Input
Amino acid sequence: MKTFTLDQVQDKLIGEVGTPDRDRFEYELQMELIGTAIRQIRKERHMTQEELGKLVGVQKAQISRLESNSGNVTMDTLIKVFTALKAKVKFQIELPNLSINVGI
Output
């Protein structure tokens, strides 16, 4: 029986790193993890989606979509949500000759 590494399976089923299908998969996975983190932190803070929405300036439905990864979200909204949840936000941008780290 032949065995495969996780990387080989992902390359075969999802697409190789750098392909549009793989990039889309990685993005959706990251957004799912962000939504899960927001839901978990919100619940730990004993907040409803409506209460968080009021702090951020959006409707409850926007928070629901964000937590369930079922809609587009702007960076501005993400920053506002994490700020309202008292979370530290860091961005890392990597280009061939430049690396930028920003903390909010």
In short: The first helix runs from residue 6 to 13.
